[in-house]
Amino acid sequence: MVLLLACMLASCRVGTHRDGRYLPAISGLTALGPGCWLTVHDGRLPTEARFGTVMLDVARRPAYRELAADALPVASDRLIDIEAAAAVPGRNGEFLVLESGARLPGAAGRRRLVHAAVVAGATHIDLRGTCDVLPSTTILNNCEAMLCWQHGDSLRLLIADRGQGSSSANYVAGALELTPECTFRAEPGASGSLAGTLTGDRARACADLLLAADDTIWSTSTVDPGTAGPFRSVISRVGRLDRTSGWPVFHAPEPIHHLDGFKVEGLAQDAAGRIWIAVDDEDFGGALRPLPPAN
Q1: CA distance 31 to 108
Q2: Closest CA to 155 of 184, 130, 126, 124
Q3: Distances in Å between the alpha carbon of 61 and those of 31, 57, 99, 197, 289?
Q4: What is the pLDDT of residues 91-102, one digit of tens each?
Q5: β-pair type (216-223, 203-211)
Q6: pLDDT (tens digit, 9 = 90+) per residue, 168-201?
Q7: DSSP per-residue codes, 179-195
Q8: Is 163 left (phi over 0), alpha (psi -120 to 50) or beta?
């Protein structure tokens, strides 16, 4: 009986399924096309996934596929602890992904931003360029969120940390250039903080951000007591993008969705305007769900 139980547990171990209905824990999410999402994962070991896609079949059931990736153009070592993803406005199939910058084996002393490209149905993600944004974001600790938007002819980027154990998360914003190389320049005076909704030592003020089509900014706050949970998440409206100044304006959180039992680390919006969540429930894997319309 003990041997049988051990075999059953081994067969259910998180991360053993590379494709199919099983969803691994998801640390970042962005829409890739109708019924399709790009997922990123906080893998640290060489055998763990970094990128994937989730597609809905004709029965609207999600199917996961891990994406292969070549070595980075500038640094040959694998990305470690990817915690955020964002689409590049005006560039179909182009995205940004970000390492957290946490002090982990093999990752200490860097926080790489990567320009990538992928299309729905692909089996491979093209890593086009990278830059280390740590020198511009030294005030941030363990980043989990990004926003990317267009202002005039230029791109702008906001990077936020998770505000572990704090009532707020810090952010840095600035100019982004992707041609010919990926570069980020923090804008003086464009840093600040945004409030979370959950408190306590294991609370994270910001686990992801979403810039919706109507310029509303959404955030997810979480509680993560450990790999076995139990988790909590609150998804709130936290600000707007001021199109005149070209910079986000944050306000006190307006909680809209309360999700006990889930650690939401990905927010995305589909073409119909629905917000979708992706979860990183550690030992329990991941999930992808649409949210009901906000009142």
Answers
A1: 30
A2: 184
A3: 16, 5, 30, 32, 11
A4: 999 999 999 998
A5: antiparallel
A6: 999 999 999 998 789 999 999 999 999 999 989 9
A7: SSS-EEEEPTT--EEEE
A8: left
Whole-angstrom distance, CA of residue 287 vs CA of residue 264: 9
| DSSP assignments along 202-232, one per residue | TEEEEEEEEE-TTSEEEEEEEE--STT---E
Asked whether 270 and 276 are in contact (CB, 8 A), the reply is yes
How far is residue 112 from each of residues 13, 33, 81, 159, 274, measured CA to CA in Å? Answer: 29, 25, 10, 12, 30
CATH dotted code for 21-290: 2.115.10.20
Is residue 4's pLDDT more than 60?
no
Which one, of 289, 193, 177, lies nearest residue 233 by Cα? 289
Pairing status of strand 203-211 against strand 232-242 = unpaired
Give the pLDDT band of residue 77 (cuts 50, 70, 90): low
Model confidence, pTM: 0.90
Note the maximum CA span of the chain: 67
Residue entry with tokens 């998804």: 235
Domain regions of the chain by residue span: 21-290
Residue 57 identity (one-letter amino acid): D
Residue 7 token pair: 């075999």
161 in Cβ contact with 152 (< 8 Å): no
By CB atoms closer than 10 A (0-12, 13-18, 19+), residue 141 is middle
Size (the chain), residues = 295
